Amino acid sequence: TPPAPSLSDALHGADGCVIATPPESHTEIAWKALGAGGHLMIEKPVSHQEDDLGHLFTACERAGRVHMVAYPWRYDAGLRRFRDAVATRARPLTFTGGYGYNTGNATALRMGPLLDCSHFLDLTRWLFGDVEAVSCALAPNHTAHIGLRWDGIDGTATLSLTAPLNRWLHVEPGHVHWSRDDLDVNAMYVEEAKHFLACIRGKAVPLSDGWDGRETLRLALAAQRSAAEGGRWISR
C-alpha cells in the first residue's frame, strides 16, 4: 500500500487553501499552504493565540499571496445597509447586542464564547473601528458579558454558546436595528467565496485580511484577560 500523501504534497499546485480546522492548527497548516504557493482563507478565529501571526502575514505579502480571514457577516447585504445607516449617526452613540446559539460542538465549547462568537467582535470593529477598552465577565454556562468603548461610543453585548439562536445589534440614537432575520446566510457565504476567488485573481482585496483577524483575536484575548482579572477595563 503506498503511503498516504503528506499535507504539503496534497496542497502542491493549489491556487488557494481554505483552512477550516480547529483554530489551534490554523497557523501550522497556513505555513504549509503558503510554502506550497497557495493563497489563504483562514476560518475564524484566525488562531487561538497571537504567536507567529505577524510573521505569517508578512511572509504572505512578500510572496504575493492573499491572506484572508473568514468573517462572512461582512459580505451580507443587510449588514452593509445597517453599517451605512450607522455611519450617518453623529457621536455619542450607544449600542446593545448579542450573538448566541446552542451548540454541542466540542471545539466551539473548548474555545469558549469569546473566540467562537468572534463574528460579533469583528462586526463591532467593522462598524466603529478598533476598540479602545474592553471589559468582560464569563458565566459558567459558556456565556460572556462584554463592555466595549470607543471615543464617543459605549456598548454592551452578550455572547453565548448555550442560548437559542440570536444575532442582533441596536444603536442609539436613531433606533438603528439589525437582527438575525436580516441575515441571508447562504448568500453571504457565496459572496465570501466569490470574493476570495476575486482576490486570488487580483481583482479585489480582502474585506477582512489576516491583520483584521489578528486584531479581532487580540480583542477576544483582552476580554478573556479582563474576565480572569475580575472584569476590569483593559485599554487597547
Q: Please summarize the sheet with the most strands.
A: 7 strands, mixed
Level of helix content? 25-40%
Number of helices: 9
CA(first)-CA(last) distance:
54 Å
- Uncertain residue segments: none
In total, the number of strands is 10
Give the ordered list of helices and strands: HEHEHEHEHHHEEEEEHHE
Radius of gyration: 18 Å
Biggest sheet, strands in spatial order? Answer: 9-8-4-7-6-5-10
Proportion of strand residues: 15-25%
Gross morphology: globular
- What would you call the structural class? alpha/beta
Average pLDDT value? 94
Task: Describe this entry's structure for a reader.
The chain is of the alpha/beta class. It is built from nine helices and ten strands. Strands 9-8-4-7-6-5-10 form a seven-stranded mixed β-sheet. The chain has a three-stranded parallel β-sheet with strand order 1-2-3, sandwiched between helices. Strand 8 and strand 9 form a beta hairpin. The longest helix has 19 residues. It is globular and about 60 Å long. The termini are far apart. The relative contact order is 0.19. The model has no long low-confidence stretch (mean pLDDT 94).
How are the secondary structure elements laid out?
Blueprint: H1 7-11, E1 16-19, H2 26-35, E2 39-43, H3 53-62, E3 67-70, H4 77-87, E4 93-100, H5 106-111, H6 113-116, H7 118-128, E5 133-139, E6 143-150, E7 153-160, E8 166-172, E9 176-179, H8 185-200, H9 210-228, E10 234-235
Parallel strand pairs: 1-2, 2-3, 4-7
Antiparallel strand pairs: 4-8, 5-6, 5-10, 6-7, 8-9
